[in-house]
Amino acid sequence: MDVQILHQDDSIVVADKPSGLLAVPGRGAEKLDSLAWRVQQRWPDARVVHRLDMETSGLMVFGLGLAAQRAVSMAFEQRRVDKRYIAVVAGLLHEDAGTVDAPLICDWPNRPRQKIDAMHGKPSLTHWTVLARDPHAQTTRVRLEPVTGRSHQLRLHMLHLGHPILGDTLYADRAARAAAPRLMLHAQWLRIPHPGSSELLEFDCPVPF
């Protein structure tokens, strides 16, 4: 699978990660291939700022050098980065928009799964908007805007609404898993302050499904 570089300057690289490719290397030589590894073949000083699940496609940003990585990482931590994802979920959402506020925590006996835990979970907030409904297929295309960045947040928040993302092998039921050849989740749009100039940069990545 090919990796498309969408932007590169003295401070950052922005790439489109394909679904099925690891964001960063896993354990063992057989899991070395990843978006980070491929980017570092061209830019050896590229450093990971944030991650996407292997099954999720879309925009990832790398800092070129430690100072750029720290600056972009700080922007993520301080929620100065705006993100939009596109997903296709099972069922027809009745409302046109809403917010999921459901704290998340690691489900340790069942790692890498996460779970909603109102008492011990970390605050997790997602805004969602319906883009299109398909009554024939009984699916809904939604735009997801995470305020926080918890692991598996979007997948669990859609499940919490009763509408799992199609193709989700971790959380969806059998029918929703089988309804798509991949996880139907794509990091489509990103706005970040440039680590050098603080200029707001916007990146858009076409949805492959």
From TrEMBL:
**Domain of life here?**
Bacteria
Molecular functions per Gene Ontology: isomerase activity
Which reaction does this enzyme catalyse, per its entry? uridine(746) in 23S rRNA = pseudouridine(746) in 23S rRNA; uridine(32) in tRNA = pseudouridine(32) in tRNA
Supply the InterPro entries for this chain. PsdUridine_synth_cat_dom_sf (IPR020103), PsdUridine_synth_RluA-like_CS (IPR006224), PsdUridine_synth_RsuA/RluA (IPR006145), RluA_PseudoU_synthase (IPR050188)
The Pseudouridine synthase RsuA/RluA-like domain is annotated at 12-160
Function according to Swiss-Prot or TrEMBL: Dual specificity enzyme that catalyzes the synthesis of pseudouridine from uracil-746 in 23S ribosomal RNA and from uracil-32 in the anticodon stem and loop of transfer RNAs.
Protein name according to UniProt: Dual-specificity RNA pseudouridine synthase RluA
Look up and give the organism this protein is from.
Piscinibacterium candidicorallinum
